[in-house]
Amino acid sequence: MGKFYKTFYRFHLNNISHLKKYNLIMKLLKLEEVFILWHTHFDDRLENGEDFKLIGVYSSAKNAEEAMNRASKLEGFKDNLDGFEISIYKLDSDNWTSGFITQ
Fold this sequence. Notes:
Blueprint: H1 3-13, H2 18-29, E1 33-42, E2 50-58, H3 61-71, E3 84-90
Antiparallel strand pairs: 1-2, 1-3
């Protein structure tokens, strides 16, 4: 973090809510999308047969890929490497635009 951002944060952001801080920082960084790293594991012993894990949310594809490389060495993940997925989400955008039906 550069000197400007450290000074700005220390003097101006300490007195506002976390949500306002987040929004302001995102504007300063000009972040328009995030990269979400998921892992899905299929196993008949699990309820509904599958298990989804949100590994993390990252500011770049590179950071998400580095996280996937780290996680791929961990117990369980290393035996299910094809379960990783990186999804890209645009900030301030609806990602689900239709209703749903439960059957």
